[in-house]
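Course assignment 3, question 2. Fill in each field.
Student: A.L.
Task: Predict the tertiary structure for the chain below.
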Amino acid sequence: MAMVCLVIAAVACTPPAASPTAAPKATEAPKPAASASPAAIATTGCAGGPYAEALIQGAPRVALEIAQTDADRQRGLMGRPSMPTDQGMLFVFPQATRGGFWMRDTLIPLSIAFIQDDGTIVDIQNMQPLDETPHVPPRPYRFALEVNQGWFAANGVKPGDQFRLCLRS
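Answer field:
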């Protein structure tokens, strides 16, 4: 199992008002209310991006939007016509879940990594635009990271690798 120390800088935690924030919706919402925290995989005091960095060895920086409320997770990346290659969205759930993601109203081909509480990537799947077939990993996950399709493969990121989110202090 490779220790992944990829650096992903979270530069945009809220999208511009003009563009609707939309990504695949989880088909099964966790029961706890509203907001979740990425504290389980986070450390503080990191240098870099204005908000946070994710660490996966050998992979380039990716600016992240963080979806940690029910509304943010349901909207995800829906309706966006494109996404820069160095951007992505981290979905944070209040507890481990088995719910799937779909691509309703999502126009961008995406890859998704399902990540456990301890930061271990349990599965990576490719998702096609507008496809409502649920993408469900083989094990429960607490976080999901969406990037442009093929990003994980192009950067050698695979299941078993370790993901860390470093919050700027």
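Instructor remarks: Confidence is low (pLDDT under 50) at residues 1-35. The CA atoms of residues 17 and 80 lie 12 Å apart.
Grade: pending
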